[in-house]
Amino acid sequence: MEPVRINKYLSELGVCSRREADRLIEAGKVTVDGRPAQMGERVNGKETIVCDGRPVGRAAGEKSTKPVLLLVNKPQGIVCTTSDKDRAPNIIDLVQYPTRVYPVGRLDKDSEGLMLLTNQGELANRIIHAGQLHEKEYLVTLERPYDAAFLRRMREGVKLEALGVRMRPCRVETVGAKTFRITLTQGMNRQIRRMCGALGYRVVELRRVRIMNLSLGRLNVGDYRRATAGEMEELMRQLALSAEQSGYNNAGEDSRDMDDQWE
């Protein structure tokens, strides 16, 4: 294979995302032929590469696997990191899928709902790429009833004074006296909780029900399912369209995965 950056190589193997690979490299937990890997170095897959104590890639005898995309209904109390620093059950242990997969983005420990797991690094990168305005939909319940002013300010985009940023305008719909539906196109850490808190409300329940065209549906809490062929086709169509509109430089890479048979 042609030499590629080591973070991309690990991502394409399904070991971790590029961002996580960079963190592991910075922490000295990735070695190439026995020496610490350098940020941005290129590999061709023939090296002996060890990531976080485990050999990976061709040198470790790994074979290519079918691409996987899982929809998981994450319970509260489960974390979406794959490290042990949170000292809490993580979503990989919850699912126990036979093929190595990792989370696409995150959903905080106190929230529940839709999480995606995949073994395709480039697919994960394109779904979470911030510039592409991909929709994520949530059901939110507050500790007390809200009013029309609250809805209006949420729709306009709440300014978070502590961070000095204003959130993008978003779609907000009434569901009940204390519950509303919100659709975001950005993914700041604990964004909805921060927005509600800035307006004087506390979130008591938060559930993500959709990411782009992928919906939670009737999936029970703690269960998972594989994305259907129809869902994958529509997801790839949306990713290709948003990549074209934003000029994302990885456009088309995941389209080739459609030639494979997704599990």
Structure description:
With 263 residues, the chain is α+β, with helices and mostly antiparallel strands. 25% of the residues lie in helices and 25% in strands. It contains 7 helices and 17 strands. It has helices at residues 6-13, 18-26, 91-95, 121-128, 148-156, 191-198, 229-246, and strands at 4-5, 30-32, 35-36, 42-43, 49-51, 54-56, 69-74, 102-104, 112-118, 136-142, 159-160, 165-166, 171-174, 179-184, 203-211, 214-215, 224-226. Strands 7, 8, 9, 10, 13, 14, 15, 16 and 17 form a 9-stranded mixed sheet that branches. The chain has a 4-stranded antiparallel sheet with strand order 3-2-5-6. A two-stranded antiparallel sheet has the order 1-4. The longest helix is centred in the last third of the chain and has 18 residues, at 229-246. The protein is elongated, with a radius of gyration of 20 Å. The two termini are 25 Å apart.
Distance between the termini: 25 Å
Content-based structural category: alpha+beta
- The helix tally amounts to 7
Shape verdict: elongated
Strand content: 25-35%
Radius of gyration: 20 Å
Stretches where pLDDT falls below 50 for ≥5 residues? 249-263
Order of helix and strand elements from N to C terminus: EHHEEEEEEHEEHEHEEEEHEEEH
Number of strands: 17
pLDDT averaged residue by residue: 85
The biggest beta sheet, please?
9 strands, mixed
Query: Helix proportion of residues, in percent?
Result: 10-25%
